[in-house]
Every structure is written in C-alpha cells, then in structure tokens.
Specification:
The protein is α/β, with parallel strands linked by helices. The chain folds into 2 domains: about 270 residues, 3-Layer(aba) Sandwich (Aldehyde Dehydrogenase, Chain A, domain 1); about 180 residues, Aldehyde Dehydrogenase, Chain A, domain 2, CATH 3.40.309.10. The chain binds nicotinamide-adenine-dinucleotide. Nicotinamide-adenine-dinucleotide (NAD) binds next to helix 7 and helix 8. The site of nicotinamide-adenine-dinucleotide has 25 residues, from helix 7 and helix 8.
Length: about 475
Amino acid sequence: MDYPSSFLSKAFLAGSWIETPRTFPVRSPATGAVLAEVADCGPGQARTAIEAAAQIFPEWRSTTPYLRSDLLRKWHDSILAHAETLARTMAQEMGKPLVEARREVLYAAAFVDWYAEEAKRIYGETVPSRDPRKRILVRSVPVGPVYGITPWNFPAAMVTRKVAPALAAGCPFVLKPAEESPLTALLLAKLWEESGGWPAVFQVLPGSDPAALSGPFLDDPRIRKLTFTGSTPVGKRLYERSAPTLKRISLELGGGAPFLVFAEADLEKAAAGALVAKFRNGGQSCVAANAFYLQKEIAGAFTRLFAEKVASLRLGDPLDETTQVGPLVNAQGLAKVQELAADARSRGAKTILGGPCRDLFFSPTLLAEVPSDARILEEEIFGPLAPLCLFETEEEALAAARRGRAGLAAYLWTQDLGRALRFAEEIPYGIVGLNDGLPSTHQAPFGGFRESGIGREGGKWGLAEYLEPQYLSFGWE
Ligand code: NAD
C-alpha cells in the first residue's frame, strides 16, 4: 500500500482503530499476493458498534446541517487529495484497471459533494388544515442508526453513495464492506477521521463471516435501517431477517441488462456504447449489459464494429496504465463466466472473439447465434462475455427486454424518438439508457424495479431513504 497503512489491519470501531484476535487475508486477484491481514470482526464487535451508534445518535441528530455539511465537505476534499492512493488500493484489492479506479474515485467523491450540499436543504412542510383551529407541521427526521453492507465491485462509490446521505441526514452509519475489498473502506474511514469527522458516527467492521457479523445488527431494534448492495438471493434473506424489527430497507440488487439495437440506430455510437456498457469493470457491474439483441438487418454491421472494438481491449495487470480489462475478482466469478459460456456453446452458440484464460483473467469474448434457452440469457454474467441475439419486430424486442425477473437497467439504441419513449414506458426497468451506455451519475435515482431491489440511491431520492416525516398537529388552546 502507498499510505501509512497500519490501520489497514484494524477495524474502526466506536471511534477507535482496534485489532481483533483473528484476521483474514485480502488478496490481489491479479497476482494472488496477500495485500493485508485484516481484522476479522464478529458478533462481539457488532454489539459494541451498535452501542456506539445508538449512543452517538441523539448528539449527531442534533448537530446543525451546516456542521454536517462542513464535515462532509472536508471529507470530500480529503478523498480528492488522496485520489491516487484510493485508486491504487482498489486496483490492487479487486483488480479494477487503474484508469477506471481513478474515475471511480471522482464518482465516489461526487456523492459526498452532493450530500454536503443537500444536508442544508432538508426542508419541512406546512399543510393547510381543514380545521381553522389547527396547524399541520411536517418535519423531516433522521431514521436512526444505519447498518450498511457493500459489495466489492465499486469499493469506494458503493460506500459513499450510502454513507454520505446517511451522515447528511443525521444518522450514524456502521459499514460492513465486502471481504474482497475492505481496504478501500478502511481508507475512506481514515480520511473521514483525519479530516475532522466525528469518529463514532462512521464505523467500519471488516469480517470474513458476513452472516455471523450481520446477525446482531439485523436483530437489534436500535438499528433502524438496513442498506444493502449485492446479490438478489442475499438481499432477499436480509429483507426477511429485518422484518421482526421492521427496519427501513434499501436493497440495490442484481441486474442483467438487455442491450437493444434497432435498425435506425447510429451503429458506430451504439458499438462504442456497447463497449462501455459491457466491458467497464470487466463486466462486473450491476448495470452491465448482459445480453445484446440486434435487429436482424443491422446485426452483421453492428457485430463487425463491436468486435473490432472488443478485439482492441487490453487485458492485463490492473496497475498498468494501459490496461482496460483486469482479472475477475475471484475463482467463483471466473467459474460462473466459464460455465455460462460453455452452456451457450453446447446449445449451438458460436465464438466470434475470445482467447484463452490465464489465472483469473478471462479474455473479452463475443458469442453469436445464442439460442433463447441458453442460461446466459437468464443469469447475470458479471464478466467480460457478451452474447449476441437477433430480433425482427418491436414485439420480439419487447419480449426479450421483459425476460427474467431483474429490473435494474436496460439500454436502447434508436434514432426514432417515438420508439424510444414508447419502448422505455413499456419495459420494467428503473434505469433506461437511451442512446447512452453509461447511465450512472450521482444526481439521478439509481435503483431497480422487480427483483433488482427496493429504494433509490443518488440525488434527492438517496437522501429521502434516511429520513422520515414527523407530523406535528398543533391545536389552538
Ligand atoms: P453478495 O451478495 O455475495 O455480497 C455482497 C455483500 O453482501 C458482501 O459485503 C458480502 O459480504 C455480504 N453478504 C454475503 N452474504 C451475506 C449474508 N448472509 N449476510 C450478510 N451479508 C452478506 O454479492 P457479490 O457477488 O459480492 O456482488 C455482486 C452482486 O451485487 C451482483 O448481483 C450485482 O448486480 C450486485 N450489485 C448491485 C448494485 C446495485 O446498485 N443494484 C451495485 C453493485 C453490485
């Protein structure tokens, strides 16, 4: 690590950096080298964190929004000042190419910047009363202590997208980062502390047994909100586990985005958009294009343009400035991509591009003539593998887009304005990229329909997740 790093083996618990009796290794997916042995927190540390969050909540909630805004602003500046360290840490612990990791730092910082501003705009309302002797006042109050669980694929942005609005609203936050990427989260906590942030309002508990560590948070009624980003099966389990204490819930779950190209689309732009939508972060993004549906008459031309771009992608060491695709994060991720490719090929799909694999590196691959019963069209691929399918009519395209149970993102390329709007209104997705392969930005509501989740992150919607209305009914004496 490029930063004085003794804290990277610890947990940030109740305002202090602590060691735990056990540790677990964090490995580089590119080399297999152990980057750090990190504190392995369990139920004991979880209970301490809950006490600390519950204790600090009344004080934090009572601070002025100007103070919270100021602390978030300083954190933002510190994140930017340490952008290169954060980027290198991400590249090392989860294999994201350095060039992309630098962009993620800017994206992560943008959430902190936005919520530093929004903290000052948490307004109440007055509502006209039917009764002339009453007044109706509505306040926005913080929901209370929050437990957050983040995935490894965006180790910085998934943290700030949750923590910044929670702190802005007046909620203390306890974070459990993914086992694969705790170092970025610990570094973010260190920067929060060093820039003057109140230590106990943002705690980070790494752990190798997420279910055991999460248990006390899920069971404790003082934790008023659970915010989770990760896979749909785990999200459903956490939803159930949160029911007995009726927590507020935000779930940002799996995607599986269809990418549709109509005959009238600008094919050059569509191919460039496809490259970003599929191969950013090696395909390990919840909004990654899963399957491509091409209108028959342009399928050949689009495939040639797309294949040319994919063939030029450089696979390699994430720390190399020229690398565009790194390794997959772990052996399970690689096995899944290999299985889905093998299943599609066994059903008749043709490989039009793709090379051999080495360690966790999977060469960017295009499969054509993928039959409609292939598993790859139903399951989230989460890797640099692109299946191509054909359609003839808008009805067929609509049926393809409605397949499955996910509803996070969909992409549509067309120059027919009527078709674009008609289609967007007909498909069940929380995010629709209309001639846009990268529809992720901090001001907009990010989240999914159907089994892709509950709630939104980003913009004013992300702040509302941490607030609830309190209605004061004022009667004249
Ligand atoms: P995952 O669900 O296995 O892990 C995500 C997090 O949940 C990790 O921190 C992990 O430790 C924790 N976890 C796992 N089991 C748990 C349990 N029983 N109790 C408590 N915590 C538990 O997901 P993953 O495979 O690491 O991440 C990829 C998934 O995340 C994909 O499906 C992707 O689409 C989704 N994702 C969604 C969004 C979004 O905004 N919708 C963003 C990024 C990733």
